[in-house]
Structures are given as structure tokens and as C-alpha cells.
Amino acid sequence: MAEAYRKYSADKHGEWGGDDCALSALIRIADFLCDHAGARFTSCGFGRTIAGGNATNGTELCCALEALPEILKWLYQPSYPTCQLDFFEQGVELFITISAVNETELDLEGRTMLEGPLDPVHERISRLKFQAMMNDLYRTFIQAVEACCPQELTNPWLLDEWINGCMPYAGAVQRASL
């Protein structure tokens, strides 16, 4: 799979894909994982499931990954009253605001630009469960990158901006080479 990714990346993007930020690397990796490696990203809540349809798995995965460092930081060291997760792709357009109800519970408020109300608009989740979900997203993504495109773990944009942004908060999963 790593060789397939090298060819995909070189054919489509060149070395580091012309990256100028972590987001461009995340887009390329998420598209490859979803389009060529069989990865599927599904997010459920507010009476909706985000998976396929008008959305693409790679784009929605990238939305979640892009927000992950800030969400993890907010969960472990909240310095703002809320944080945001935006699934902005046309056909999804779901915006989730995360706020603390108390030390152990979070409120997730959904907004959409699409027709029809969300049902429910608010969902409650334990802070520990949400932290575990975000940590699992980080670990699963790192494991997929290690398996499919390990060379990306040395991509300076991905390493400096995204991995280093997640690592202080994403539990004990770390690679000795990072």
C-alpha cells in the first residue's frame, strides 16, 4: 500500500504534494485512504449520518482531522467557552459547537444551512467518552498513515502543525521516530 501511495502522491501532487500547510497534506492523505485504501469515515448525530451521499468520505474525514488539534487542546486545557467542528461540504453543511455543561459533561449543538431542522439540536455526551472518541480518531489515523503512507509522518507540515498539535493531548500513542 505504501508504494501505491507513493505513486498516487507523485502522479497527482509531487513531493509533499506541493503542501503549504498541514491541511493540504491531510486532504491528500484522507482522499487516498478513502478512495484507494478502503477507509470509511462516518459521523452520526443530530438525526443525521455523515457518510457518502453528496459528501465524500475524504473531505469529511479531513474536516474532522483539521479540527482535531484544537478540539483536543480545548478538551484538556479549555481556554475558550466553546470549540467548533465544521462539516462544511455542500450537501452536509453541519456545524457543531462543543461546550462544557460541567466538568464531566459536554453539550454538542448542531446547526445546518440545509433545509429542515436538526432533531435533536443539542446532544449531551460525557467528556471522557468524547475525549476517547477524539483520541481514537487520532490513533486510527496515525495507524492508517503508518500502514499506507508512512513517508507522510516525516512531512514537515503534517509533523509540525498537526501531529505536534495533537500529541500533547492524544494519549500515549507516540512513535519513537516522531
**Which sequence of strands runs across the widest sheet?**
3-4-5-6
Counting DSSP E segments of at least 2 residues, the number of strands comes to 6
* Biggest sheet statistics: 4 strands, antiparallel
The sequence of SSEs as H and E is HHEEHEEEEHH
Number of helices: 5
In helices, the fraction of residues equals 40-55%
Taking all Cα atoms into account, the compactness measure Rg is: 17 Å
How would you describe this protein?
- Helices cover 44% and strands 18% of the residues.
- The protein has 178 residues and is α+β, with helices and mostly antiparallel strands.
- The chain has one domain (2-166).
- Mean pLDDT is 77; it is low at 51-55 and 172-178.
In short:
The chain has 178 residues and is α+β, with helices and mostly antiparallel strands.
Q: What's the arrangement of secondary structure elements?
A:
Layout: H1 2-12, H2 22-35, E1 43-45, E2 48-50, H3 57-76, E3 82-87, E4 94-100, E5 105-112, E6 122-126, H4 127-148, H5 156-166
Antiparallel strand pairs: 1-2, 3-4, 4-5, 5-6
